[in-house]
Amino acid sequence: MVGLRRVLGNELARHLIRVNTIHPTGVETPLALGLGHMNDLIADVPEFGPIFSNTLLYTITQPEDVADAALFLASDESMYVTGLELKVDAGCLIR
What we know:
Layout: H1 2-12, E1 21-24, H2 30-33, H3 38-44, H4 63-74, E2 85-88
Parallel strand pairs: 1-2
């Protein structure tokens, strides 16, 4: 997705089409709730813990949090924003 964003961002800029991606942490959805056995995996293999941990003290985000990021990118307030990798991840990817 990152590579595709870069290519499309460059190709479509001449048409004033902006291309950005949103990279969320765990979002409270049926899919994420189905991963409830993740705690068992982390208990069995503690080295996996940091991979699935956020830096901020939020364990999971809400769909509205990601939707707000998408609304920003779709708004006029971000008219000069393209090629952005917007991380709505509570600091997960800086670990």
